[in-house]
Known about the structure:
Elements: H1 3-20, H2 24-34, H3 40-55, H4 57-64, H5 69-80, H6 85-91, H7 104-110, H8 120-123, H9 131-138, H10 142-149, E1 155-159, H11 166-177, E2 190-193, H12 208-211, E3 215-217, H13 220-229, E4 236-239, H14 246-254, E5 260-264, H15 268-271, H16 274-281, E6 286-289, E7 305-311, H17 326-329, H18 332-350, E8 353-363, H19 372-381, E9 385-387, H20 390-401, E10 410-411, E11 416-418, H21 420-423, E12 428-435
Parallel strand pairs: 4-5, 4-7, 5-6, 7-8
Antiparallel strand pairs: 1-2, 1-3, 8-12, 9-12, 10-11, 11-12
Amino acid sequence: MTPVARISAAIEVLDDIIDRRRPAADALKDWGLAHRFAGSKDRRAIGDLVFDALRHRSSSAFAAGGENGRAIILGLFRVHRGLDVAAIEQLISGERFAPPPLTDEERTALGTDCLAGAPDHVRGDYPEWLADELGRVFGADVVAEMQAMAASAPLDLRVNTLKSEPDNAARELAAELGRAPERPPLSPLCLRLPLEPERGEPHIASTECFLKGHIEIQDLGSQLAAEFAGARPGMQVLDFCAGGGGKTLAMAPAMQNHGQIFAYDSDRRRLAPIHDRLARAGIRNVQVRTPKPGSDVLDDLERRMDLVLVDAPCTGTGTWRRNPDAKWRIRPGSLAERQKDQAAVIEAASRYVKTGGRLAYITCSLLESENSDRVAAFLADHPGFDVVAPDTLVSAFEAEAMIETGSAVRRLPLGLMLTPRQSGTDGFFIAVLARRS
């Protein structure tokens, strides 16, 4: 396919996403099935253009004076790829397979710098109905924070210290991939591969380094959230919403295979991948508790756990770098449902925390209504729990990792927040509560 034909295809896919409110991956898959002449490089290029457009959908559409796929692509080229009107006209020329030429209205809109006076939600590329929610936590920095959330995310890996060391894993990975990973300053265990669009994302799961269990794919924010929870050797730990096991696999090396982690999830399908992951990582101190109909598989753990980790279901607003179409599909009703789920899950998990034990509440959300509000509501109903001061969590982490976080980790009254702009991670909230009675 020619470059202009790829642009036409991207416009077609975007219109499908907008008109039918479809996930981008589904729309791209269906386009590929209907256009089998397109090769893998074509499909990847079209997908990259579609996802880039979705990251900047609001600002791009505003700049081009429209709301459809064509306007979004035109605005993307003008605002985010730095093309002037003449350069855009060469791409949007009307020649064979190219989109039709620019109209006078489009030419005028693209020639005007209109974003300077645009509303915050347009410049920050987030849904207008979330403006108050995001303003609560970010205030005057909301546009800068959300522009960082609209950028592409790197590929982060966590070194499994049960099988390797960071320097060795970095050398091994560099030899296999032909490029050295970066070492983010917030964690000695993270290896980062920045995006290289011309090469595409490497298939880490096929590398020897991964197959031997030396590394796991995990965003640095998720790694740090597990660290702040504070699992240590000898503890009894319950990962109450374990899913595929990402945070269980991060906590086990921190515990040096001593103590016990109980991995549980109410959905046995989400829990299924954990078994192979544990075997590959060489982890021996995890019991997987798979739910069974009519049976309480956690009954024997009540009030026995030193640490209960709740990776709560949420809207995923902190993962918009990786799922840019999700921010345009989220609705107030789904936020309300997630808040109910969060209240239920933190209530259920609290029964397993022993006196003197801790409950770590984690979301990949930026919204206070899913974060601090849920913690505050739980504390109001459970006077036997107190919040562990965020500064205390940071100090313990810095002493253990021998690093200084500075302003990279934001301290809120009831917890910690990580964001792309401050931390170079996905968005995460972490609060730790201690049971005193």
